Amino acid sequence: MAATGCDSSAERNGGHRARPSRRGDAARRAEEAERARPGDADWRIRSTGPPDAIEGYADRVSVLPGEEFGLYVSTTAPAFRVSAYRIGWYDGAQARLVWRSGRVAGRKQGVPLFLDATRTVRADWDRSLRVRTRNWPEGAYLLRLDASNRHQRYVPLIVRSRQARGRTVLMHAPATWQAYNTWGGFSLYQGQDGAYGTRSLAVSFDRPYAGSGAEKFLVYERALVVLAERLGLPLAYTTGMDVHLDPAVLRGASAVISLGHDEYWTPQQRQYVTRARDDGTNLAFLGANTCFRRIRLAPGPGGAPARTVICYKTAYRDDPYLVSHRDLVTTDFRQAPAPDPESSLTGVLYEGYPTDAPYVVLDSGHWLFAGTGVDEGDSFDHLVGVEYDRVTPGDPTPAPLRIIAHSPVVCRGRHSHSDSAYYTVPSGAGVFASGTMRWVEALMAGTRENGRNHGMDARTGAFVTRTTENLLRAFAAGPCGRTRPKPKDNVRAVYEAGTRLSWPEADTGTTERT
């Protein structure tokens, strides 16, 4: 799919020196006013009920403020309502009710459509209502479907930013949400019989998400949104798919934050995020297994753009792009026919699943750990997992690169390490990778949020929270290589000189899912 909105060299070279506009001042005042509003603690689901009690999906992954989207709902109840909650801090309530529908007649919708060629499930339901996002602020939203039988489900939606100059971009990962979605019996990991060999080769956004309807967002993204809003940083919201479609949103951004599970990227998204780094935009990868799968986006019913995620993985020889578009063949980025390991961007390389290990501090004096009180060798139980990344000497790795945490792990009997790493580039941009998928989850450790925190305690939650605060504040201030000490490369000191670590074998469907 063709992308639009590429930067001109003049805009790119001057992106971080632009003076704030009056519009920018107005936007900041609007953000401050929004954060000062009272929240609504009643945003959580109390009962999901049976799978068909109520479920739904939107015909847009994201919208600009004021745009409309359609909701497609199926329920066994006579009626339902929709409540739109914007996620934020809101003095601890963590969400605000922005809009609520009237009573909508409910009905059980028809059986889904199955596309044999790619084993794709599409609900293809009739539209239940249209919603206009008038006066909805930019942000991450949960649309809660409330059935008259008292059961509930979520539908996630991003009200995205058109531009992010001078702001920190939270880049949500709906392509990864959809890849793991088993609604209708099929995902990019398994078929209806649970086998990898019968998995979908393409998955559609025209179907609900299984479970609560927003599990990936709730586990891997929400806590970071809440923290960033609590800090009062100038924020912008987008998705990886929207960066693919229009990279102009990254122009002049202070930072781009990839959240806790951001596995599926198009080559175009990767190209534009790399360009933003090279123009001075800081990058943070707060998960593991990031930018691992190379995907394509295809239209949905009626030509709606980017409604299908295509990823053949180990069946890439069946990918029709193999003949004439080898660089777009949907296998892992590191694999043939166009190998391009993710470590050249993230600084680390995905190595394995599953593991559960303590996070071990290596460079306690690094500015990211300021105020945490840690010493070298201090550890935090269960913080490394369930997937992990490491620095791989000899493979494409930026330099100078500083390993600041080096955590021994055992994965399927193999002894290895998980690394947190930091590097800078000539533009001044700083890049941080946590090396563990549990980083964002750990922001909730020791609280009543997200009860499946893998045994992580309040001490771990405090450490990760303070480190993340240091990161977000520094990255929001502009190119971090100009305001913080530049990293002194320690890769050779940590790993023996000349060691070459092999990449893990191509995944056969046993990667993490929650």
UniProtKB/TrEMBL annotation:
InterPro entries: DMFA2_C. Residues 81-444 form the N,N-dimethylformamidase beta subunit-like C-terminal domain. It holds the Pfam family DMFA2_C. Residues 1-50 are annotated as: Disordered. Residues 22-45 have a biased composition (Basic and acidic residues). This is N,N-dimethylformamidase beta subunit-like C-terminal domain-containing protein. It comes from Streptomyces luomodiensis. The lineage of its organism: Bacteria, Bacillati, Actinomycetota, Actinomycetes, Kitasatosporales.
